[in-house]
Automatic annotation (TrEMBL):
One of its GO terms (molecular function) is oxidoreductase activity. The keyword rRNA-binding does not apply. InterPro entries: AKR, AKR5G, Aldo/ket_reductase_CS, NAD(P)_OxRdtase_dom_sf, NADP_OxRdtase_dom. Keywords: Oxidoreductase. Belongs to the aldo/keto reductase family. The keyword Oxidoreductase applies. This is Glyoxal reductase. The active site is at 54 (proton donor). Pfam families: Aldo_ket_red. The record marks 83 as: Lowers pKa of active site Tyr.
Length: 280
């Protein structure tokens, strides 16, 4: 079982990825972003997740540089993820997008690079580009985001390298059990974005009762549920006390009964776009 914030899961290519990280979706460039990244590193986080479309890679890079210096650790101690945006999907354009993200972040390599959305007719070419980056040693691991089972099957049919990670919307109202089982079977690590459903679950009575029993917050219960399900999770926060609170999930364990109760909250309800029906 995951014991602390630095614990990792080993991806199918042997690369270690932290179970827990900081997401920066919708955090704009500026001091708040830089400080959030620095705070996370200071308090033991070793994984930072961004994307080209968030338009905050420069601030993330600054936060990483300052955070590493203050924490006295090296770039190799950190796991950094970014994603190629839909407009850049294609072979040459994806290769160029990767270089652009690296430049903005001020890094020499990424630990994980993902295709952000499965845009029909485009994502297979983009996957070929990711394979090239991977084979050239420019990125440690490659994966996808928001891919359903049929998208994964379509990629794998032609791929030379199987995706190592699939990052999807996942929370107690959208438990993704089928996708989770498929990924597990294929050796693809599932990762949750919006694990707290953008705060919509924080007043749920079932979750509140479980939280009270453990002397924990609802957010901590949900994040613990992720980890016990074998799902990597990247809650987003910009407030230092919340960044610390989110990561204080290694000193308690949910019972099988509680895990089942939380699974029972599923309604296949999304707060984000449907990967089978989006137009951007």
């Amino acid at each position: 079982m995951v014991k602390n914030l630095q614990d990792t899961t080993t991806l199918h290519n042997g690369v270690d990825m932290p179970w827990f990280g900081l997401g920066v979706f919708k955090v704009e460039e500026g001091p708040e972003l830089v400080n959030a990244v620095k705070s996370a590193i200071k308090h033991g986080y070793r994984s930072i997740d961004t994307a080209a479309i968030y338009q905050n890679e420069e601030g993330v890079g600054q936060g990483i540089r300052e955070g590493l210096k203050e924490a006295g650790i090296t770039r190799e101690d950190l796991f950094v993820t970014s994603k190629v945006w839909n407009a850049d999907l294609g072979y040459e354009s994806t290769l160029a997008a990767y270089e652009k993200s690296l430049t903005k972040l001020g890094l020499e390599y990424l630990d994980l690079y993902l295709i952000h959305w499965p845009v029909e007719g485009k994502y297979k070419e983009a996957w070929r580009a990711l394979e090239t980056l991977y084979k050239e040693g420019k990125v440690k691991a490659i994966g996808v985001s928001n891919f359903q089972i049929h998208h994964l099957e379509a990629v794998m049919k032609e791929a030379n390298v199987k995706p190592m990670v699939n990052q999807v919307e996942c929370h107690p109202r959208l438990t993704q059990k089928e996708l989770q089982a498929f990924c597990k079977e294929q050796g693809i690590q599932l990762e949750a974005w919006s694990p707290l459903m953008q705060g919509e679950l924080l007043d749920n009575e079932t979750l509140q009762a479980i939280a009270t029993k453990h002397g924990k917050s609802v957010a901590q219960v949900i994040l613990r549920w992720d980890l016990q399900n074998g799902i990597v999770t990247i809650p987003k926060s910009t407030k230092e006390h919340r960044i610390v609170e989110n990561s204080s999930v290694f000193d308690f364990e949910l019972t099988d009964g509680e895990m089942t109760q939380i699974d029972g909250l599923n309604q296949n309800h999304r707060v984000g776009p449907d990967p089978d029906n989006f137009d951007f």
